[in-house]
Amino acid sequence: MDRNTIQNQQFDAERALYHLQHTDVEGCIFAGPADGESALKEARDVRLLPALPPLACKGIPAGAFVDGRIGPRRYLVRGKWRHLG
């Protein structure tokens, strides 16, 4: 399956990338005036990649793999599933 790429954008709306699949999200910011939650809810096969320099992703570290099937507030970093505080 082909992968999509989203680069250098800012998302602050509620569920901005709801149900996103098979996508690399590079250098994006998940914060702003609307201060929405659950930006990547129900996401599957999504990789968060840092920009240069790395930008904040609301608690999810750059390079994390997000898969909503595992849990809405969990992400994978270096082979370990972690829970978003």
Give the DSSP E fraction (strand runs of 2 or more residues).
25-35%
What string gives the helices and strands in order?
EEEEEE
Structural class: mainly beta
Please tell me the overall pLDDT: 74
Main sheet attributes: strand count, strand direction, barrel closure = 6 strands, mixed
Stretches where pLDDT is under 50 for at least 5 consecutive residues are none
Oligomer: single chain
- The helical percent reads under 10%
Tell me the total number of β-strands.
6
Radius of gyration, in Å, reads: 12 Å
Ends apart, CA distance between termini: 32 Å
Strand order of the largest sheet: 1-2-3-4-5-6
Number of domains: 1
Envelope shape: globular
User: What is the number of helices?
Assistant: 0
Structure write-up:
- With 85 residues, the protein is mainly beta.
- The chain has one domain.
- The protein is 0% helix and 31% strand.
- It has a 6-stranded mixed β-sheet, with no helix packed on it.
- The radius of gyration is 12 Å and the shape is globular.
